[in-house]
What does this fold into?
Amino acid sequence: MRLLIMGPPGAGKGTQAKAVADHFSVPAVSTGDIFRANVSGGTPLGVEAKRYMDAGEYVPDEVTNNMVRSRIAEPDAAGGFLLDGYPRTLAQVAELDGMLKAGEHDLDAVLVLTVDQEAVVARLLKRAEIEGRADDTEDVIRRRLEVYAEETEPLIAVYDERGIVVRVDGMGEIDEVQQRIFAALDDLQD
It folds into this structure.
């Protein structure tokens, strides 16, 4: 299975990504993890990314694309992967298409976790309180949700046109959401 997982901040993507990847015996590939691994490993891409990160700038698509390309070319991803946090732009969608085409593969599905916005705001405020994240105020959280809608909705629309979006209700207990995801994705394999 070659999958993407998408959803707004607080939808539980990180939590569900690991379970989904384990379920399908594929690696969960998070761009955040890739950045950290390359930076801590001092790879040439990591050194380049760190330069931008230290300056408080976005890491350019070219660097991000190369990191993802390198990661999904590793042996453990030969049978599939679950991408979390990539693609984030329409240009990255085109780049991922090229990576997959080069390996003669397609995406099997784009899993989109749908959630109630007010419930997500409450969830993130509670997490901020528990984890001591003073910067996660209600205004900041609502802005992150706006940015997600502005920047990610166009990507979901592209994948919708291809008929590979699988929407799953992300509200409820972790296990309940997991079972809905497994049921929806297992149907694809039949």
Q: What stands out?
A: The longest helix spans residues 138-161. DSSP finds eight helices and five strands in the chain.
